[in-house]
Amino acid sequence: MSSSCGAPDQAAPITGAEGQTVLSGRVVSGEAPVGGAFVRLLDGNGDFTGEVVSSPNGEFRFYAAPGSWTVRALHRTGNGEASIQADGPGVHEVAVAVA
Amino acid sequence: MSRENVLVSAQWAEDNLDAPGVVFVEVDEDTSAYETGHIPGAVKIDWKNELQDPVRRDFVDRAGFEKLLSAKGVANDDLVILYGGNNNWFAAYAYWYFKLYGHDSVKLLDGGRKKWELDGRPLSQDVVKRDETNFSAQEQNLKLRAFRDEVVDAINTKNLVDVRSPDEFSGKLLAPAHLPQESAQRPGHVPSAINVPWAKAANEDGTFKSDDELREIYKEAGIDESKATIAYCRIGERSSHTWFALHELLGYEDVKNYDGSWTEYGSLVGVPVETGTGKE
After folding, report:
1. What does DSSP say about strands A90-97 and A59-64: parallel, antiparallel, or unpaired?
2. Is B118 in contact with A17 (Cβ distance < 8 A)?
3. Rounded to an integer, what is the distance from CA A7 to the centroid of its chain?
4. What is the C-alpha to C-alpha distance for residues B221 and A26, in angstroms, rounded to an integer?
5. Mean pLDDT for each consecutive 10-residue tract of chain B (280 residues)?
6. Yes or no, beta carbons of B86 and A40 under 8 Å apart
7. B3-118 fold
8. Which residue of A has its CA nearest to B238?
9. For chain B, which terminal residue's Cβ has fewer other Cβ atoms within 10 angstroms, N or C?
């Protein structure tokens, strides 16, 4: 763990997240993963909360809190978004298609 | 303050990649992005390993800054164009260092790496080596930097702008949502602070909003333009982004960045802390 603000490796196994609410997923275009997309987490009011860059396999994750969230992805080939409801701690999966 | 004096567009940058006397510098905490491709000709600065003091909890001192920029090949008469990932957080932090150490000829690339990539502009993996220079810095301009006692004194007297997300402000989260939750000893915010998340100042593509939009956002949030302002976040980089918006774009005269930010304040013994939304 560090006190820094750089996002950890988005493809690494999720560890040390016991009791945390993790939103984990993949950016895709059709069936193909989209790496290098800017993935933004918006809260229930649509306000920006965090942003990461998807891994080469399109993966991303956020350490959030229970609630309603929107995940929005921006890429030079297109944008897209998906909603996710996290009712409690654990890993919640979400896929975001860009077009 | 005119925005042309402090910001350049991606198009200007692409048109001036080879302009003499212009040095592009990518600043990031995680420099792996630079290795996979950077703006052609840009040198890199590693925020964590090169801009922080290796022993004390502080950033590089004047001599260290001079040594670093000399080694990077930045001269005193160069125009430095800073950019980076994370919506220019660390580039804005570095911009603040440059101003703090008296190098005025510095601008931010509007939108940073994100805008550049979304535009599909060229990236290069070529190794960049510039000739060493003899860069000289000034003493820190402490009109731009706030320390903890000043923040405590500012409660209910100055504008305190907490630029973290609403959940960090209220105490629900201790760190941004893309990070494991660890940071200060206590969650919450400095009493009397207003919460204007840094992202309010930015468009989705990472560029800054217009001056009119910015002025409206801070006015609506309750900034008193007649008072001095201190901005803070968790470790001082997001608040550099807001410091840039308030001081460099809007031209508010007395704006300081509290680089100790919540990581320091939320671990202090005996200082007042507030949780919740801060609104009545």
Report:
1. unpaired
2. no
3. 11
4. 35
5. 91 97 94 92 94 91 97 98 94 97 98 96 96 98 98 98 92 73 82 95 96 97 96 94 97 96 95 87
6. no
7. Oxidized Rhodanese; domain 1 (3.40.250)
8. A5
9. C
